[in-house]
Each structure stands twice: as structure tokens, then as C-alpha cells.
Amino acid sequence: MTKNSKSAEQKKSLKLTEKRKKLSEQKKHSKTKRFSLNTMSPSESEINSLLEDYQIGRYGDAEKRALSMTQQFPLHQFGWLVLGAVYGKTGRTGESLVPNQMSVQLAPQDAQAHYILGITLRELGKLSEAEASYTQAIALRPDYAEAHCNLGATLRELGRLDEAEISYTRAIALKPNYAKAHYNLANTLRELGRLEEAEVRYTQAIALKPADPKAHNNLGNMLQDLGRLDKAEASYTQAIMLQPDAAEPHYNLGSTLQEQGKLKEAEASFKRAIALEPDHPGAHKNLSFTLLNSGRLKEGLDQYEWRWKVAKTKLKSRQFQQPVWNGQESLQGKRVLLWSEQGIGDTINWSSCLPLMTSLAGHIILECQEKIVSLLARSFPNIEIKPEDWSMDSEREDFDFHLPMGSLYRHFIPYIGQNSNIGAYLIPNPVRIKFWRDRLSSIGKGPYVGISWKSSEVSPFRLKHYPPISDWSTVLTIPGITFINLQYTSFVDDLTEIEKKYGVTVHNFDDLDQYNDVDDVAALCAALDMVVSTKVTPMIFSSGVGTPTKVANWRQSIFNTVLTNPVCSSVEMFHRDTWESWDNVFNSIAEEVHKLKNAAT
């Protein structure tokens, strides 16, 4: 919630004129005798003066009057109510907590006071307490649409999306033209994966409040999820027209332009987003990938270094006393520490550059995930391979320079432009290769083709990289092929579907932990005749050991770059454009599988 939206929420929630009238009526009908020093209730003129200062935005004067009123009349709610509102309007949420708590304490039957306290608690991140305040407001006033809506927002932040949906729906039932409730419900439905329903709610929110840039922006996000890129582009453009200085719509516009292959326009949008919000992590990352997709390797890899310079990055940098190697200092006789920064697939892919580092430095240490240590130690015997250990980073003295693995390519640009020509660089355990060859022979005749079709990370964007099993039919129905599962997660239902739909058994080795025992996975890949895969980790192993690997790839993906594509001459990429189906890709891959089969007969 932004500062402006917080202020608007506070302003909307405080119907101070009605509150003043109510308190004035209570005062008129009070039978309590007034003390001479006016200690029980402020006068009508004092209430009016405070209210006037607040309503016309003289917050400094209103704060002084409210403070004075709470000191003179500590048991009267109005001063506390306005003081909490002033603090909220001036961005001092923490200071508003006590006045709002006092307001509730002095008027426990006041639904609005509980509601306002809920706003403050939510802004302070005290979500469970905020939930309780909104719930109490609703108990006192069941038709309080705003309280239902804000309860929904709190439940959504707590991850209770189904309950949030119920609260938003109740708010809309009470107040059908409540644009904010329609908008929030749309966001929740999108998170639940019910995109068509979300579109209806976004459209309704915009109809009720057409000048809301956030609604246009989020409608664009949803349309982009659905692959309706032209309409998404139009929504982002409208959001920019309404709020030209907001970075997010420019970033999102760049993303949808990128997916359409409009790289120059995408580059301009990402640069505009960065100009407006220099620390925007997504804009820096996608600008890097756009430059790489355009073939501008140096610019793209230089831009990729921004992953360490933005505050919101999900990556965690290691804090050494030694400097990062900048590519200029001589490494002759020096010790260099390389360290993993991302997933095991990235680490293994980038390790193809390790021989180049050994030619420059006196000694190389690579710290990586423990489960790939044995594979890399065997593959690169001249490098000291160790499990990563962050515990003593600031005190270490066993190296002179360090470098995160994702920065390796930046220092070897001429090489990576040719890295599709290198041979196998991973050496699996030869004993285990023989074991897997024997195991494969025991289940049937070859050729043996490993398949992997989706990532463990599922999102609308990620799903664009992974065609459904039904699109694999031209490959899976080739007779005379023994298929082997290389998926390490979420595969049981898919294997059942393949067998039911195509009468094909994809063999899975239950005794192989494909997630953790990656050294053995590499050995299995080396025993196979071919691997067919989408852009997921198993293709890194199969290509690295030199097994012919056919990859179904989305050409316009931000991940279609030298940083993420597998290396080696054993890899062949088959590209689908955004506006195409996967049919041509799998027809072409099927031809390669037929060639393999014919060569084996």
C-alpha cells in the first residue's frame, strides 16, 4: 500500500463531520455535570476548530489542537480520533497506533474506530491484529462494506486467498459499485489462477473507475498471462497515459513487447522504467536479457551485473573482504574463489568456462551446492571444488579475488559467442554409467530416449515455456523407442496420462532420487541415446555429458540467452515463436528421433 493510498484510506474512513455531530449530541444530552476547568468534554467551538484544520489540510495546526484536546480531555474520543488521523495523513503510521487504540478503548462500540485501527495495524504489518479489528468492526456493523474489503486485503496478505475472496464478494454484495472491491477481488482471482473470472472483475473495476492506472496495469498483467499480448499492450499503454511517471507499467509494457519480439521497443520501455525507478530489479534484469536476445553480448552482460546493485534483488551476495575480480587485474599466481549464486543448472552450465579461468589463475576454488560437488570435482580435477559455506565469509584469507559464477561469461565474451561448439565437459562416474546401461537393457530394447517436460516452478509466465503433454504426441507415439523419465518432480500424473492416452510407458526409476543424486542423474543421461527436453535442468546434464539433446524452446523468452541456454555441440534447439503452436517444434524433434531409431536398426 503506497503512502498516497494510505492517506486516501484514512481520509475516506474518517467521517469526522458525522463523528463531531454525534459527539455533540452526546454532549447535549449528557447529564454529567461539567467541571469548571472543562475537563470532561471540549466545547463546540474547540471541536469545530479542530475539524476545520483537519478538513482543509492544516495538519500541523490540527495536530497541535488534537494533542491539546487529548491532554485536557483524555477520556473524550474526538481528540484521539483526529490525532490518529493526522498521523496517518502525514505518514507517521507508527505514531497513529496509540491514538487509534485509545479511540477504540474510549468507544468500544464504534465500528469505525475498530476499522481505522485495523488500517493502522495492517500498515504496520500486524496482520493478525488487523484481522481482529476488521472482524470486530463487522460484528458491530455487518453492512460495513469497507471493513469487509479491508478484511479481504488482510486475508490475502496472510495467504488465505479463499477467505479473501469471500470477504471481497460480501463487500461487493453490500456495495455493488465499489470499484476497489472489484479490483482487489480480481487480484485475488488472478492469484488463484482463475484468469477469466479475474478479467471480468478488472473490467468492472475499470468501468466504475476508468482513471485508475493500477486497474489498467493489472488487467494488462492478466491479459499477458493469457497470452493476449496486443490487448495487454493496450492496457499498459492506458496505465502509462494515466500515470506516466510510474515505473511499473513501463516495465510491464516492455515485458509484453519482448514476448512479441519487439526488442527495440522493449528496450526503450525498460530504460524508461529504470529512469523512473533506478532500483527496479525486473527492469534491469529484463533489459539485460533483451540486449542479449539482440546479440549485444557485452552490453547485456554488463547490464546483468545490476543484479547486485538493486536493493530488491532476490539474490544474496556474499560479503568477503577481498575484491571482486574485474577482469583487468592479472591472476598469475593468484587464488580466485568462484561461488554459486543461483540454481544447480546455472552453476553447471556456467562451469563450462572453468578451463578458461584455470589458464589465467594460479589456483581456483569453486564453492557450490553440495549435491554437485562430486560431479564437478571429477569433471574439473585442476580446480578445488567445495560445498558452499557462508559462515566465515568476512574472515577468510584463502583467496585473493572472488567472482560470482553468473559473471564468468562477461569476462570471456569471444568464447561464449562460440560456446555451442564445445564438446562434453562433464564426466560422470564410469561405474554408474555401466550400471545404467545394464539397467536400461533390462527393461527393453533401445534406442533409449530421456524426456523432461516442465519445471517445478509453476506460474503463468513459466507455463509458456512448457507445452502440455498433449503437444508431445508426435514424439511419444514413435514405435520402437524406450522412453525414460528425467523429471524430478510432479511427474506421476503425467506418466499416467501418457500411458492412458498413448499406450506408452515412460519408465521411471523409483530408486533414483533425481532431485538430490545429480551425479547419478548425469550418469543416467550419459547412458541414454538421446534426451528430448524443454528448458529445464536435465537438459544441462545431458548436454554436458555429450548426449544428443533436442530442446523445445520459446524463442521470445527472456531465458533464451547465452546465460541460460545449454552449451555443447550435442545440443540442438528447436524454436517456437510466441504466435505459433508447438506443432512444428515437435514435428521436427520427431524427425530426429526417427533418425535415431533408423540408425539403430
Question: What's the short story on this structure?
Answer:
The chain has 601 residues and is α/β, with parallel strands linked by helices.
Order of the strands making up the biggest sheet: 7-6-5-8-9-10
Query: Which stretches are poorly predicted, pLDDT < 50 over at least 5 residues?
Result: 1-7, 24-38
Q: What would you say the CATH architecture of the largest domain is?
A: Alpha Horseshoe
Shape call: elongated
Rounded to the nearest angstrom, the radius of gyration is 31 Å
Q: Give the N-terminus to C-terminus distance in angstroms.
A: 65 Å
CATH homologous superfamily descriptor of the largest domain? Tetratricopeptide repeat domain
Description:
With 601 residues, this protein is α/β, with parallel strands linked by helices. The chain folds into four domains: 3-221, Alpha Horseshoe (Serine Threonine Protein Phosphatase 5, Tetratricopeptide repeat); 222-315, Tetratricopeptide repeat domain (Serine Threonine Protein Phosphatase 5, Tetratricopeptide repeat, Alpha Horseshoe), CATH 1.25.40.10; 335-417, Rossmann fold (3-Layer(aba) Sandwich); 430-600, 3-Layer(aba) Sandwich (Rossmann fold). 54% of the residues lie in helices and 8% in strands. It is built from 29 helices and ten strands. Helix 28 (538-544) links the parallel strand 8 and strand 9 (549-554). Helix 14 (229-242) runs antiparallel to helix 15 and helix 15 runs parallel beside helix 17 (281-293). The longest helix has 18 residues, at 583-600. The chain starts with a helix and ends with a helix.
